[in-house]
Recover the amino acids of this structure.
């Protein structure tokens, strides 16, 4: 029996799971330096706002080209779960998912019986461009990992 779980409850040994997620970020497809392989990264978020990085490789990128619309909700089942690589920085989550053609991806509006979509993420912090005029020159904002400095140009 398939069990409905959140991202934190899924690990490498979890079998027959399904997770309700929302696409928070979807990168553009990239090609390797050799030009022979494609990959695409995404960030998904569950009902408890836990985020995880997802990757697709090769022909799977084209297979799911019309899926994974930002801020749309999906039920995902059967993604390959692996430990996140920590060599390139601090990962979003202990694990990452790889989606291939064997992964079941169902848009929430096509599920029977219908389910309500997830609410928009609240973890996103935005600063409108209008508020930059009111910031002091050299003002730093952001998270501990990403610090941005405001530079005002006199045009």
């Amino acid at each position: 029996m398939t069990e409905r779980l959140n991202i934190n409850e899924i690990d490498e040994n979890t079998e027959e799971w399904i997770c309700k997620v929302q696409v928070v970020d979807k990168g553009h497809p990239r090609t390797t330096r050799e030009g022979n392989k494609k990959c695409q990264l995404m960030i998904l978020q569950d009902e408890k706002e836990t985020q995880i990085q997802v990757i697709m490789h090769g022909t799977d990128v084209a297979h799911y080209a019309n899926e994974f619309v930002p801020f749309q909700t999906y039920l995902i089942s059967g993604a390959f779960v692996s430990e996140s690589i920590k060599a390139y920085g601090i990962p979003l989550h202990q694990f990452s998912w790889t989606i291939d053609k064997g992964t079941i991806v169902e848009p929430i509006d096509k599920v029977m019986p219908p389910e309500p979509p997830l609410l928009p993420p609240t973890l996103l912090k935005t600063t409108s461009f209008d508020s930059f005029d009111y910031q002091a020159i050299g003002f730093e904002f952001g998270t501990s990992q990403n610090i941005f400095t405001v530079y005002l140009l006199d045009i």
About this structure: The longest helix spans residues 59-63. The domain at 3-110 is CATH 2.40.50.140 (OB fold (Dihydrolipoamide Acetyltransferase, E2P)). The two ends are 64 Å apart (CA to CA). The chain has a mean pLDDT of 81.
